[in-house]
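On clarity, I found the account of how folds are encoded harder to follow than it need be. What matters is that the chain and its backbone geometry are given together, residue for residue. The format is easy to grasp once an entry is in front of the reader. For illustration, here is how one protein appears when written out as sequence plus structure tokens.
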Amino acid sequence: MGDREGSMPLFLTRTGNRYIPRTLQAVFERAKKKSGLKKKASCHTLRHSFATHLLESGTDVRVIQSQLGHQNLKTTMAYTHITDDRKLRGNITGTFDGFLFSQTGFDGHSL
């Protein structure tokens, strides 16, 4: 959601401008409330989950680093501990695991 020079925004307004972070947060909160989701979640949670799912599906960590706009690989590597924890619990999956990939044909390896 930050405005990094040279970065491409994921969401644009009807006029083609970037959304401000607070607007995206408000949209997310409304959607969360409407869905009945009681879990603590935020836009950053979505970003973190996206990166974790890519990592778990075998995407190279340097590709993920680039997608997240991290300058330092250590920042991206912070996601690996979650992957290791899930492996210890038997790789428990969530309701929407695989949905993105099955709906778009995106395999996580060919970014």
In short: The chain has two domains: 1-37, 42-104. Residues 42-104 form one domain. The longest helix spans residues 21-35. The chain is about 50% helix and 0% strand.
